[in-house]
Amino acid sequence: xxxxxxxPPSWKLASPHDTLTQGMVVSGFASLPTGRALFLQFCWDGxxxxxxxxxxxxxxxxxxxxxxxxxxxxxxxIGLTWEGMRKMGLDASTLASFDRPFKEGMFxxxxxxxxxxxxxxxxLSTVTPGxxxxxxxxxxxxxxxxxxxxHAFDDLEKVVExxxxxxxxxHALLLLYEKDEETAEAWCRxxxxxxxPHEVKIVHGLPLDLRTDERGIAREHFGFADGVSQPAPFExxxxxxxxxxxxxxDYWNGVPLGEVLMGHENGHHEIALGPVVADSPAGRAAxxxxxxxxxxxxxxxxxxxxxxxxxxxxxxxxFWNSMDAASxxxxxxxxxxxxHIDAEWIAxxxxxxxxxxxxxxxxxxxxxxxxxxxxxxDNDFLFYDRDKLGHGCPLGSHVRRGNPRxxxxxxxxDKQTLLDAANNHRILRRGRKYGPDIxxxxxxxxxxxxxxxxxxxxxxxxxxxFVQQTWMLNPNFAFLYDEVDxxxxxxxxxxxxxxxxxxxxxxxxxxxxxxxxxxxLPSMPAIRYLASL
Length: 533
Prior knowledge:
The chain is of the alpha+beta class.
């Protein structure tokens, strides 16, 4: 008898896209559990002092960016801000061709309001005290405005006025993945030495961790299994399985490749838009293809993506002490019917899954969905028929808000429509936790720890910002009243349906944003072009 399969088939990109795309698009590099996030600042000023891409060429010599054609002994990925590419000398017309949210940056006032970070000039409780410490600070400060900026914005003055500044400016993010701490630290020193002559500084850094426990589960700092649910991209003859055949469209989680990579068809049956650059010998030498719809232009975006990054600080001790206090209050008030309620029971309903990543389910003897045939948490499920009212997985839980599937359908006839609509807002997550594990989850040791949230999408407004504003922070999500995401939102209430009626608990703020920005994740040819500037 043959051995049981170890897991579901993983997707990869067929040639030539596998050599044209950064490896982090198709892989979380689970075989490389240690990593570093290095936030880079270009320390030259003014249009006259643009340094081009020499720093990127120097970086490639010591930390070559990994493509997606297979497993590597070490790996690296890179993203650049709009202002970073402007400082490198990217021309005005190319800068103007990027998506508006990326050009404005995450710290434009209107975007901060949508993301739940700032309102009426004040940082909210979901942000670290005193405000975040880093951003891309796009588009520019007034002293650095040039023609490139004016060309890129119809209302540049308004954008500049509504751009919130942070103490640290980040122009690029370098992600390094290694097998252990010693080699990762040595690699960081090598990178720093290579960048210093080009006036590129490492202004912020985070140690990244994807180690698994004895059960093979990667857990975030609160203790829950992380990375359980992901969209599954598909595109004929481009997204394939190990033997080269087309990756099958996943009914529950399938999304067109254009939701993740520019230049491919997205969920609206359109080619996902990306930036363009004027045809030139340098562009052709780098391998940029002719743009299929723009005569005289090369496609700078093909096989690239937008990378959303948010540094999210976690207060682990406060989280679990709050869960203890909430369960104790319920036990005191309702001793006859609350014997099953403890801190883990409440925390699981905040998340929507148990600690091992299994979805809470009302029609199961164990209270969760059984594992799938690969002995993994089952991710092939819908909400409407199984748990429409949230008696298992609460309607306002983090998991249900992050991907409501068909759960928002008003009638059975609308289930497919709502599932399709939900999948048109999916994001591909590539984040890792940072900082040391906490020895005792009830005792604060004073150490910094959290999650470096990273996701890839081709339409920042329709994907990441929609999920954050319309699902996570919507106080009337799924017919709830005045409730937001209990994990990422501000202090508020969480309704937990339970027969015969419900329980309502108060949840404080345990996750705070310490910095963030929108980055362009360039393709391998785009990296070569930027290095040649």
